[in-house]
């Protein structure tokens, strides 16, 4: 239950990403700067945290031991996640991007077969947790209901360019996160892991920033400030909170799916934020029904997680082996 609360709190800070990215695009800022500046601003904060916790030496040792994997999964988990999100903000409003992003709930569940768990001396390929998939699908239905009244007011091209990149991000984020947890094997804390992934993804962000410099020029002061806010709220606070929650339940696909499903609450926070900051009107009745379904889905995930936590680890392993 604590992990789910951490996930919801992370979703609150993640919501600033969608609101501010859309705000920067409306002000004429390039998605190239929006994406790269976030990680540039994350770096000093994470360095201070890791150095203060005396974790730098262990982090560098881990990165040097398997540099290619660090580069690969950091690229998947950070670049293929945030680049498409900021690009999609160029074509779609915040509600469209944040709503489509919730596909990551189902994507995370579907990724289970890509991972192998050791049970004694036996390698067991993880299975898709069916109950978690069903509950996540319920949440997805609620999100689709939110989208229906809004989707009628935008063109097909905007829908396509606002949706497809986000679907790529929806798979990339949980895949990169889980692969890095698997790679680190609990040897690094969350701060070290986020810093390591940020450093490993820097070459791509530097290339994007150089390209932006020669194509669109320097970013405006407004975009720099808003990117700083995104870097702190979403890049540092939200990412660390979410990674702590997922790291605690990394051995259980059902619980992991429940924590990842907390990202659905981002839609609620984005809608509230846009109403307050951008003057967006209250959603239509069908969208409000969708919000209720999302809340019900979250409650079901919480209940299912509590049931799982009451089972003994031995019985759970036996059940998995027999199924």
Automatic annotation (TrEMBL):
Pfam family, one: EmrE
InterPro entries listed in its UniProt record: EmrE
TM region positions: 31-50, 70-89, 95-116, 128-148, 154-173, 194-218, 224-245, 257-280, 286-308
Top-rank taxon, per record: Bacteria
Keyword Transmembrane helix listed: yes
Keywords: Membrane, Transmembrane, Transmembrane helix
Keyword Transcription regulation: no
Protein name: Multidrug resistance efflux transporter family protein
Species the sequence originates in: Lysinibacillus antri
Lineage of the organism: Bacteria, Bacillati, Bacillota, Bacilli, Bacillales
């Amino acid at each position: 239950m604590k992990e789910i609360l951490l996930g919801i709190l992370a979703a609150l800070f993640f919501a600033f990403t969608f609101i501010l990215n859309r705000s920067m695009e409306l002000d004429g800022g390039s998605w190239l700067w929006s994406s790269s500046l976030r990680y540039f601003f994350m770096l000093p904060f994470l360095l201070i945290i890791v150095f203060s916790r005396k974790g730098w030496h262990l982090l560098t040792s881990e990165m040097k031991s398997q540099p290619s994997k660090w580069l690969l999964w950091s690229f998947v988990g950070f670049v293929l996640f945030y680049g498409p999100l900021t690009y999609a903000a160029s074509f779609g409003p915040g509600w469209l991007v944040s709503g489509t992003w919730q596909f990551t709930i189902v994507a995370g569940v579907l990724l289970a077969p890509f991972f192998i768990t050791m049970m004694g001396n036996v390698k067991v390929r993880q299975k898709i947790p069916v109950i978690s998939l069903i509950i996540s699908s319920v949440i997805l239905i609620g999100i689709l209901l939110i989208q229906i009244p809004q989707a009628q007011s935008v063109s097909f091209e905007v829908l396509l360019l606002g949706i497809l990149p986000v679907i790529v991000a929806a798979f990339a984020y949980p895949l990169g996160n889980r692969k890095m947890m698997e790679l680190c094997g609990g040897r690094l804390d969350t701060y070290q892991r986020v810093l390591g992934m940020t450093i490993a993804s820097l070459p791509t962000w530097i290339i994007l920033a150089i390209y932006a410099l020669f194509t669109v020029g320097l970013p405006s002061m407004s975009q720099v400030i808003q990117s700083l806010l995104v870097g702190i709220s979403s890049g540092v606070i939200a990412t660390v909170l979410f990674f702590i929650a997922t790291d605690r339940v990394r051995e259980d696909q059902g619980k992991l799916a429940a924590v990842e499903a907390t990202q659905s609450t981002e839609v609620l926070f984005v809608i509230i934020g846009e109403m307050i900051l951008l003057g967006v009107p209250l959603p239509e009745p069908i969208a409000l029904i969708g919000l209720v379904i999302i809340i019900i889905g979250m409650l079901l995930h919480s209940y299912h997680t509590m049931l799982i936590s009451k089972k003994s680890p031995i019985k759970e392993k036996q059940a998995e082996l027999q199924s």
